[in-house]
Amino acid sequence: PQVTRLADYRPPAWTVPAIALDFDLDDKATRVTSRLTVERGEGGPLVLDGEGLRLISLSVDGKPLGDGDYSYADDKLTITLNGDSHIVESVVEISPIANTQLMGLYASEGMLCTQCEAEGFRRITFFPDRPDVLSRFTVKMTADKARYPVLLSNGNRVAAGEGKDGRHWAEWEDPFPKPCYLFALVAGDLSALKDEFVTASGRKVELGIWVREADVPRCRHAMDALKSSMRWDEQVYGREYDLDLFNIVAVSDFNFGAMENKGLNIFNSKYILADADTATDLDFDNVAAVVAHEYFHNWTGNRITCRDWFQLSLKEGLTVYRDQEFSADHGSRAVKRIEDVRMLRAVQFQEDSGPLAHPVRPESYMEISNFYTATIYNKGAEVIRMLATLLGADRYRAGCDLYFDRHDGQAVTIEDWVKAHEDANGLDLTQFRRWYAQAGTPRVAVSSRYDAASKSLEIDLAQSTPPTPGQDSKAPFHIPLDVALFGRDSGARLGDPRLIELKDSSATIRLDDVAEPPVLSINRGFSAPIAIDAPQTREELAHLSAHDDDPFARYEALQRLALLTLTDAIRRGDEVADPALVDAVAATLDSGLDPAFIGEAVLLPSEAFIGDQMPTVDPDAIHGVREATRRTLGSQLNDRWWSAYRANRDNRYELNPEAKGRRRLKNVALGYLVADADPKAVSTTFEQFGDADNMTDRLAALGLLTSLEVGEREAALAAFHARYKNDPLVLDKWFATQALSTHPDALDQVIALSRHADFSRTNPNRFRALIGSFGANQPRFHAADGGGYAFLANEVLAVDGLNSQSAARMVQPLTRWRRFGADRAALMRAELERILATPGLSKDVYEVVSKGLA
Ligand code: HT7
Ligand code: ZN
């Protein structure tokens, strides 16, 4: 496959100031007539992208073109034009029902919808499918009225009427020029939850969330989140919504979370539908975060878009940062930060240390959809967070204001974003730009010396970043480190926290007026997305976990203490938990802090994260030691877990941060009790499973039972299936729970589930629930005989012809073979080689697998 390179970027040869689309919709054969106004840009022939289109007719300025007047090969339609401005009209036919890739126009549960980012528009009509071509869209759609009573597109509906043979039509106009990846259309039998929002300047906006009629009551949470997001963007970034209408549609078959099409967001129904019986607290939080994320794109992505796809993090990193801050402002900031950092470490740090590592602004790709990664999204958000930290709130806002003023209506680059912050604040961010250009997670080694005579502390810092593909050596990063000191004896904070800016490879920082021997707390709040190597003792970590006044740092200290204990035990080959860890967990349980925080802090690091800290990952040893430590904590703190369980049980379900925090701690406590095989805990879990008045509690109980070898396991799984078999989003949880189970027979059970009548390879949610979850099940996926690897590879091959994006995502766990011992590595490589040798492989999977083997 061809490689696209940032260095080869050239402005468009032709621009398209206007496009008029006419859709004659039908699920088997849709006819698309497009009328492009094209204007000469850089010059050369007009080259339009088009993939899988059946060309029916083509004309320029009203004159039909014959075979010799154009060429259509390798997904490019080329026409030589002599003037500076022309009208190019094409008629094509496409088949939505045959579209299993879910890119372009496709059918989902009887409705028709589109997904155009990144390169789906070329599967609808001929067009320069690149984000720097901005056009005014007018759209006419005609469809059978009974099957598709609702017809939606971007912007405002300007006309509608009845047609012949039971058909009807609607016309939509979007006043804002946009790249074609933001085009959207929906036709279906939908009902709306409607509401309205009055902007800060007093404009009324009609809001609608469109779903199947029965699902309307499950849209309230999403609607409330939408209205809060609109207000938040006005208050925090000074950005108002700009159309009179904002529609959201939920669909069941969707490759991703959601899509920010101008004025017509399309969502995976998983991120819209929520009620107590079917959605967990995490689901509710995700709905609000994704609704906010897509709404925020209206300014960061739509009004100002990307020049090319190498700039993807310009909109995605910034919008993730904005949605993270929105969520932090609407719940516990500390817990939100803990969750975000946990996700960053679990997914992005792994990516950054493996064969698919790439900079936040990549330099090349084969298939752009492989670059919707944790690096672009989550590390991109961390880079914005560091910028905001270094600048402070006012200067960060000044930089954003200048960016919006300067670039509204344009397709721009990450460089333009950084430059706006420099110009607004008279700064030089030359070194900071390396965060966009260099891949890899920097490590900072920290050591410190206290001098009692001068009451000063010297901190030695040294940064290094490991090589990543194509980047052997790295220049030093500009790293903001939030630092504080705590008295070793008093536990009190000594002076104010400080922001250290590490710019050189190494530096020594001297802190004066340190009244007593201190314990150093560094990278508080995770001020930089790095790994810290600090030779801190267990006592120091326990001290910080009890005294640090930054909740994130407190959590981090306990996690590092747990990590030390676990990795030591694994190295020693025994399973004895350190009493210091037991005491620190007990102290955290007794701390009286927010239950939501305690629930997060007392969880042990995940098996994957423990593996990341070891030179070679040994999944069995990690699983054995982690489980033994959970048992020890369960038995030694048995009374405390029961008290936490009982104290946080509520009589009646409520959805607010306090109630969610209590549910969290209660279910974490139950997990420790079950880990210790307390028979009373198993029966309590089964009771909770049956009696729960909400999905959080029911699913937590099901998850615990599913990993046990007890009779209640099968009973609970059967009851859950019977109760929710007609609710696809809940059935996904049933599949995922079994795929994540650490039950010794999990692989056989997952293989059986892949043949279950309810399993599907064409529905990405269902496929991800079973296959994606199993790939994340470290002890069972990495079964020593390679059965997990072979199963995953078979599934990747089975889905590739249907949905290559799903396939490319699922194959990724196999690319980490270098991190495992020789036997497992050989088995994983063999599966990658088998996949690579398969004829007809998609470009998506080819890119991931070939890079994974390199
Ligand atoms: N901007 C959206 C990206 C997206 C996407 C990308 C590839 C294939 C399918 C897709 N659906 C949506 C999502 C977002 O970040 O808001
Ligand atoms: Zn996004």
From TrEMBL:
It catalyses: Release of an N-terminal amino acid, Xaa-|-Yaa- from a peptide, amide or arylamide. Xaa is preferably Ala, but may be most amino acids including Pro (slow action). When a terminal hydrophobic residue is followed by a prolyl residue, the two may be released as an intact Xaa-Pro dipeptide. It comes from the Bacteria. InterPro entries: Aminopeptidase_N-like_N (IPR045357), Aminopeptidase_N-like_N_sf (IPR042097), PepN_Ig-like_sf (IPR038438), Peptidase_M1 (IPR001930), Peptidase_M1_dom (IPR014782), Peptidase_M1_pepN (IPR012779), Peptidase_M1_pepN_C (IPR024601), Peptidase_M1_pepN_C_sf (IPR037144). Residues 62-182 form the Aminopeptidase N-like N-terminal domain. Keywords: Aminopeptidase, Hydrolase, Metal-binding, Metalloprotease, Protease, Zinc. Its EC number is 3.4.11.2. It is an enzyme of class 3 (hydrolase). One of its GO terms (molecular function) is alanyl aminopeptidase activity. Its cofactor is Zn(2+). Residues 440-533 form the Peptidase M1 alanyl aminopeptidase Ig-like fold domain. It holds the Pfam family DUF3458. Residues 222-435 form the Peptidase M1 membrane alanine aminopeptidase domain. Residues 539-853 form the Peptidase M1 alanyl aminopeptidase C-terminal domain. Belongs to the peptidase M1 family. This is Aminopeptidase N. It comes from Sphingoaurantiacus capsulatus.
